[in-house]
Amino acid sequence: MPLLPYLRWLRLRQALTVAATGESLTRAAQDAGFADAAHLTRTMQRHFGVAPSDVIQALRQGG
């Protein structure tokens, strides 16, 4: 995997991990180095085709 997509994936993973603990999507995005929640959402949808809120909801439900 090329370096930049890998680093982007790590940032997405970090944001989702933080948000799954109960932090807001905005705080999770900022902690992972995204400009804001909208930037995180656009990046997540572009790379994986799903919204972060859908993934976070599944993580919180244990699925």
Polypeptide structure, described:
The protein is mainly alpha-helical and 63 residues long. The protein has a single domain (3-60), classed as Homeodomain-like (Arc Repressor Mutant, subunit A, Orthogonal Bundle), CATH 1.10.10. It is built from four helices and no strands. The protein has helices at residues 3-20, 25-31, 37-48, 52-60. Helix 1 packs antiparallel against helix 2 (25-31) and helix 1 packs across helix 4 (52-60). The chain is globular, with a radius of gyration of 11 Å. The model has no long low-confidence stretch (mean pLDDT 92).
List keywords for this structure.
single chain, 63 residues, Arc Repressor Mutant, subunit A, 73% helix, 0% strand
